[in-house]
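Troubleshooting log. The previous structure file for this entry was overwritten by mistake, so regenerating from the original sequence record. Sequence copied from the archived sheet and checked twice against the printout by T.R.
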Amino acid sequence: MSQDRDRYGLHAFLFFLTLCSTVVSGAQMTGRTLVYAESLDWWMVFGMRISLPWLLDGLRFGLSLLLFLTVHEFGHWFAARYHRVRTSLPYYIPFPFNGIGTFGAVIRIREPIPGLRALFDIGVSGPVAGFVVALGVLIVGVATLPGPEYMMGMPGHEALKQYISAFGTFPATPLVVPEEEGLLTLTIGSTPLYWLITQFGVHVPPMWEMYHYPILFAGWLGLFFTALNLLPVGQLDGGHVLYALVGPVWHSRLARGFVMLLLVSGGLGFVDEASGVLTEWLPWLPGAPWVVLAVVLYAYLHRMFEGHPVHILAGASGITLAIALLSRIPTAVASLGYSGWLVWCLLIVVFIKVDHPPVLYMEPLTPARRRLAYAAIIMFFLCFSIRPLYVA
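Regenerated output below.
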């Protein structure tokens, strides 16, 4: 039983490292200056003079994001304890190189989950608990938004500052100055719930400047991570919910259909973004982007359908036809194409898996649990963005 005992020091140390990495990432993302300057307020931290705006914005982002992650994971933890399923405390995953400072947090289930109701409760509790926090953080972020003059305190962005000084608001589209010609603009994708909440706000920044607002961006990330966890595949939380709601047969069908929809979006973005590069690299190969995409789709579908030739052919034909038709519609490419889903689909088919493993004891969900399952599905669509993060 010694391997089941929580190592409190390890959990606390990982939490501390993740807090540090998210604080640093949040401060860097907002564009604050770390080193003390004469014109800035400062605090003494570990013997260094740290600029106060850098530290405060880093803490606003890091604490908001870690609050969401902690409540999400403890939602699972308390549900598991309620059903007497042995589980670990959350393992936080610091990662200072991905722009937000973390890959999230996980708990370890230390024994098989015995029944369908326990599986559902443990799976749905995390996203529901985290969603409440994400919604609260987002509302606070919108309610406390400063005016556009807030950007005047950021280093760089000279063209934007001149525009705000002249017009008192943000431009409708990103500004392109001659010295920045050819540079790409990082844009955050909106979600239905983010759009709805921001309709009640004043001075809401455009999506390409939103990451300069640490609480607002942390709230958006909470929605994004909630949607990712609720993807209806494999052993993700959404996979647990769907499996408990519709059973193994329909879970298998719906999960594969959903992955194929993601492949349509990923393929549409890939053909649009990679056409010029692949045509230049492979001039001897006619239709190079489509050939490469066909190979990728075959590899995914072969694994997803376990080598069944009819299913692979039908799936590849349907996906390719959808991509070919949508690629002729410029608005569809701009609004639906996102090559990043090819990476996520790779993670799904290789590591997460499409199918859900069987449960020892199948039992029908109670009416209250079924209503909560439908609410979780609605929650997924409210938090989901088909193009979550892209450059323009």
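The radius of gyration is 23 Å. Archived copy saved in two places this time.
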